[in-house]
Amino acid sequence: MMPIEATQSQLHLRHVLQASIQVFDSDEGSFEEGVEMLRAVLPDTTIIAALDLIDRDGVVKYSTSWGQHHYEVLGTTSTYAVFPHLNAASTVISSYCTCPSFAYAVLISESHLMCKHVLAVCLADRMSRCVVRPIEDDSLLLKLMGRIPPP
Ligand SMILES: [Zn+2]
């Protein structure tokens, strides 16, 4: 079990991270400011990799007719399903990605707050840089059933 101080500082970092992401929108000035803020809580490599994914139109946002969204990030070797907002009230885990580094760096070692895919989805959403695709209702269901890990 983690000491209380460590848990609180993790929580603080999460708040800073959320605040940094909120700074981003489609205008240039906020981009510079947001990147500066992110650098306080995430490694440069994660930030650069996330921005690179966005530049390559790698963030795909599937929308259903009833307004649900499902995100996928096209990495260099695989496509990962990203769930950026699991439960805002949860202090344990607020997002999820199916990539291996999320499992190791975020869930097991807790050395990172999020992987580049989750960051890419959060930022692309803020900057309206997602590739939006409509999705048939049945195939979304299959996607979700196939990708969400067992509890
Ligand atoms: Zn990931």
From TrEMBL:
Residue ranges occupied by any SWIM-type domain in the UniProt entry: 80-126
Pfam families given in the database record: SWIM
One GO BP annotation of this record: double-strand break repair via homologous recombination
Alphabetical UniProt keywords: Metal-binding, Zinc, Zinc-finger
Protein origin, superkingdom: Eukaryota
GO cellular component: Shu complex
GO molecular function: zinc ion binding
PANTHER family named in the record: ZINC FINGER SWIM DOMAIN-CONTAINING PROTEIN 7
Protein name per Swiss-Prot or TrEMBL: SWIM-type domain-containing protein
Organism: Rhizopogon vinicolor AM-OR11-026
